[in-house]
Design brief:
The protein has 260 residues and is an alpha+beta fold. It has a single domain, classed as Deoxyribonuclease I, Chain A, CATH 3.60.10.10. It has helices at residues 15-25, 44-49, 116-138, 171-183, 188-192, 208-211, 224-227; strands at 2-7, 29-33, 52-57, 65-70, 75-79, 92-97, 100-106, 142-147, 186-187, 201-202, 214-215, 218-222, 230-235, 251-255. The strands form three sheets. Strands 3-4-2-1-14-13 form a six-stranded mixed β-sheet. The longest helix has 23 residues, at 116-138. Residues 4-248 form the Endonuclease/exonuclease/phosphatase domain.
Length: 260
Amino acid sequence: MKIATFNINGVNGRLPVLLRWLEKASPDVACLQELKAPDERFPRREIEKAGYGAIWQGQKSWNGVAILAKGRDPLVTRRGLPGDVDDAQSRYLEAAIEGILVGCLYLPNGNPAPGPKFDYKLRWIQRLTTYAEELLELDIPVVLAGDYNIIPTDLDVYKPERWRRDALFRPEVREAFKALTEEGWVDALRTLHPDERLYTFWDYFRNAWGRDAGLRLDHFLLSPSVAHRLSAAGVDKPVRGWDKTSDHAPAWIELADAEG
């Protein structure tokens, strides 16, 4: 099974990019973030014509997440991250697909830091950590995929010294990501590419793409019961160079079939 994540940065404005990528990459599952569209504006018909069933949770102008599955409809298991009933931001969606629980997440950016937005980010991370612990206790195959808005290590950013005070790279968020992996979650991309500079985001400004001044913000965390099936992982970097594309490139993993 091939599972991908793609911060599309506006699902309607980038729809030609999305459809072109789906045809070319043909993932079995695609997690999308930053739809920037209310529920009624989600391009369901176009995505269905491309061969994908979809569930989504939109939000006008901001946020929004979706899960696409090739040739089938994802079975919704959760809408919204538990832990705060008053949180109205569309940032977490979960579905069961072919025996795997797939969580699609769009973690808050948190800038400027310190400040209220960074405080919200830290609270969201704590809610994710608590829920991730509950998922591990179930001992089932789980993939948590999406835009984490966290740069885990110096290897994941083109010039670490320039990002020390940014909400994406502050010690609090890096420690939180590290804690998830120490609890048992497996960082798929880094597991298969331990020493490679892999980026998934290049800003539109300051010729970041041309200079390859990138960041690794999009991650897959795998539960132990599915991590042993990880066979390949990578980034569809050329997509970032397409016309009118997102500032993210899709990342993907491949899982071998379950034994038995």
